[in-house]
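All the exercises in this workshop are built on plain-text protein records. An example says more than a description, so a record of this kind follows:
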Amino acid sequence: MNKQNHQMADFEINELKKDEPDYILNVEKILEKEKRKAAAYTGEGAVFFLVIGAGAFVIFRAVLKQFRQGQQQQQLMIAITHELKTPIAVAKLNLETLQKRKLDETQQQRLIENTIQETNRLNTLCSNILLSSQIETGGYSFSKEAINFSELVKSCTGDFITRFPKRIINNNIASAIYLQGDNLLLQMAINNLIDNALKYSPKDAAITISLEAKDHEILFSVADEGKGIEAAEKKKVFDKYYRVGNKATKEAKGTGLGLYLTKKIIQQHSSTIILKDNIPTGSIFVITFKDS
């Protein structure tokens, strides 16, 4: 277009008669018009390329996001498959052992407890996947009722003490603390945090579960003595499917849904959850409820 504009200007100048009194003025007008058109073409071209660039950037981001989501879903499916197959295989082996061999009472009870522990893992996994889907689609009906939160925390803690008798699980749970909320969701949030602490800390390290009412707030926390989480990772741990990229996390079982769901549940209760360092080592997850 600039070339055509230049050719048109040359043509118009050639059409002028050099002996006309306004010849110089007319040439200047033609050249000025050529410059204006050239500037307009340049501006239009720049806008055109900017639009193309912006469009390409938006498409690139959408494709990249889709690619990452695909990777996350693939990793989730691999994790879920592993999580499902392992407890099923263990439970099947235990039951076959009970069926084919004559064991004494102590051995039978050990196998039965182990089988129950594995089925509990299956139940937690299925509940997390189902709840995640319901939250995403808005299909879960949030209920609000008066809950003895102290008893709920004690019950959840007791279940883990029974399931993991060899682990050191300390608790400092104040009595008679009540709040308004969804009993099922709160139970799931508590279980996710305790399970997370056990999963990502050494087997000989203690975890501490605390509940107290302080300054019109209810504070629930789970502290572990694991390797801790780097500052750059702290906000990401609540993202869906996200798992901290260190060796301990890679070796531990998980789908990356537990902390994501826990944060969603806490947000449903108009409360907050934060992650702090446990000095000298480990992490502390703290949930703060408003004392109503």
The CA atoms of residues 13 and 27 lie 6 Å apart.
